[in-house]
Amino acid sequence: MKKTPFVSLNTAREIAREIPTPFHLYDEAGIRKSVRALKAAFSWNPGFKEYFAVKATPNPYILSILKEEGCGVDCATYTELLLAQACGMSGKEVMFSSNVTPVEDMQKAYEMGAYINLDDASYVDFMEHSCGIPTSVCCRYNPGGSFSCGNTIMDMPRDSKYGMTEDQMAGVFTRLMKLGVKNFGIHALLASNAVGNEYYPEVAGKLFHLAVRLRNATGANISFVNLSGGIGVDYRPEQPQCDIAVVGAAVQQKYMQILAPEGMGDVAIFCELGRFLLAPHGHLVSTVLHQKHIYKTYIGLDACAANLMRPAMYGAYHHISVLGKEEAILDHVYDVVGGLCENNDKFAIDRSLPGVDIGDMLVIHDTGAHGFSMGYNYNGKLRSAEVLLREDGSFQKIRRAETPEDYFSTFDFSEFSF
Ligand SMILES: *Cc1c(COP(=O)(O)O)cnc(C)c1O
């Protein structure tokens, strides 16, 4: 689908007068709309709950909007748990899906009363020694082999470090029941950025069958199935969009076919979507600083890979719009680059754009998830501000940009002077 920025040139300029570019901009109306569509798609399941993956967009203002819409959070670390707590979330509003877990992290999750999602069978002992055994426990499943949707191989679970085998899960359930656990959940994340409608129904089918087998093998009460994250977005305009209503209905069909006839029609569906809910509702807004003509033509931005790592790291495509030139003909070809001393610091290579001038404002699309959060400080590049475009059209700074003082703050500078 054609990609249009959710911000106009005038509004972007108005924001930039107060908060210099580059900054990450989030669209509150869009975020709320996506959550509501997700909840509507799963309204057939009374226990349904979304646990937003904090790592995608770890900002308390964003998490609070999601909380208002009825979401919980999925945390993987001590710091993410602290962030959840700061947003007033605890208990069954928090899923703790960690791996290679430090003791303090496990203890914090236990103290907060979070659902603990065990990555390995050895974590029963680890949890018992670290904190204790809660009454509800989730286990992460790794089916091994390859994972396909239709004829397409999506990923190779056998090469993935996450989760445990079915036999191990059965052993864990049996042991945990003896230790007093009453309710169990099962979880799997088998693909990332799976575009289209097929991924969730496929995972749901696998996990529903697994739930029936585990219940039959162990007698455990399975109270939820966590479909985790993994639904993708159309980073490229020509890619299909996920229709979450279709996905919800297809998962319901699997539920009715597999769980309901087994007397498991009370199992709640949980998910931990990050990208699907947030990515389309974020822009990285940047200004053109330089233009150079050598063997190719380069557009140099004030943003760089330290603000958005996906193109440099994965060669990921992010659509780019030139504000004020949205309808102009794409009659130029550019490499759009940042200023890191790394030749992979390129947001786009050989991209068709309208003629770009120094001072133009560019929007890099679909940066609302795994954008700011993957940022880093290479070359002393500082993290940008984050700005929320409110539903009423006003804007709010929800994180200030870093300063050199922030960058140096972990040194003891008593022996140096500036
Ligand atoms: C990263 C992650 C998610 C979110 O993934 P998206 O691709 O953003 O949907 C959910 N759950 C777990 C355990 C994750 O590691």
What would you note in describing this structure?
- This protein has 418 residues and is of the alpha/beta class.
- It folds into 2 domains: 28-279, TIM Barrel (Alpha-Beta Barrel), CATH 3.20.20; 280-408, Beta Barrel (Lyase, Ornithine Decarboxylase, Chain A, domain 1), CATH 2.40.37.10.
- Helix content is 29%, strand content 23%.
- The chain has 12 helices and 19 strands.
- The strands form 3 sheets. Strands 1, 12, 13, 14, 15, 16, 17, 18 and 19 form a 9-stranded mixed β-sheet that branches. Strands 2-3-4-5-6-9-10-11 form an 8-stranded parallel barrel, surrounded by 5 helices. Strands 7-8 form a two-stranded antiparallel sheet.
- Strand 2, helix 3 and strand 3 form a beta-alpha-beta unit.
- The longest helix is centred in the middle third of the chain and has 20 residues, at 199-218.
- The termini are far apart.
- The relative contact order is 0.16.
- The model has no long low-confidence stretch (mean pLDDT 97).
- The chain binds pyridoxal-5'-phosphate.
- Pyridoxal-5'-phosphate is lined by residues 53, 55-56, 74, 97, 189, 192, 228-230, 272-276, 369.
